[in-house]
Design goal:
- There is one protein chain.
- With 184 residues, the protein is α+β, with helices and mostly antiparallel strands.
- A hairpin with a 2-residue loop joins strand 3 and strand 4.
- The longest helix has 38 residues.
- It is elongated, with a radius of gyration of 22 Å.
Length: 184
């Protein structure tokens, strides 16, 4: 019974961590190296994450500088950024790529908030699915005679408390991301 609850909490923690990673790739008005985490660049025929072929730095609040280790890949990095949904316009001087992060329009901010809400809802659904799986496992254990009905009730209550806790944490993450997106 305890192992089921431990596994459930681990799965819920992973869901929360995944949401945090997704939120990091969501653009706000501020520059961040995490914006480029999902971008891949063709490097010797293989799609490779940008951070594995270049150094990404943020010298100012609205400026990102990408310095490729191999100058031959600079055009490919620039093309990957232009083709992405980030709506950014990179410029290169042959050595580094500079990307000025323009302030978001009100309309874009609202769109990003909707995207963030969608991500949060997917995470809530995921947490609820983990709860359902845990409860199913507990019911099987009770049917097999491994735990009593009282133990089943207690364990289901514990699983529900975990679910409530992680849904609340998801809501807190969403609230923080919303305010970050909407701040000017």
């Amino acid at each position: 019974m305890d192992s089921v609850i431990k596994q459930t909490e681990e799965k819920m923690k992973k869901t929360l961590a995944a949401l945090g990673d997704e939120f990091n790739t969501l653009r706000t008005g501020r520059a961040s190296p995490a914006l480029f985490d999902k971008l891949r660049v063709e490097y010797y025929g293989n799609p490779t994450p940008i951070n594995q072929v270049a150094t990404i730095s943020v010298p100012e609040a609205r400026l990102v500088v990408i310095q490729p280790w191999d100058k031959a890949v600079i055009g490919d990095i620039e093309k990957a950024i232009q083709m992405s949904e980030l709506s950014l316009n990179p410029s290169n001087d042959g050595k580094v790529i500079r990307i000025s992060i323009p302030p978001l329009t009100e309309e874009r901010r609202r769109e990003y908030v909707k995207v963030a809400k969608g991500m949060a809802e997917q995470s809530r659904v995921s947490v609820r699915n983990v709860r359902r799986d845990a409860n199913d496992e507990l019911k099987k254990a009770q049917k097999a005679g491994d735990i009593s009905e009282d133990d089943l009730k207690r364990a289901e209550d514990d699983v529900q408390k975990l679910t409530d806790k992680y849904v609340e944490e998801i809501n807190s993450l969403l609230e923080a991301k919303e305010s970050e997106i909407l701040e000017i």
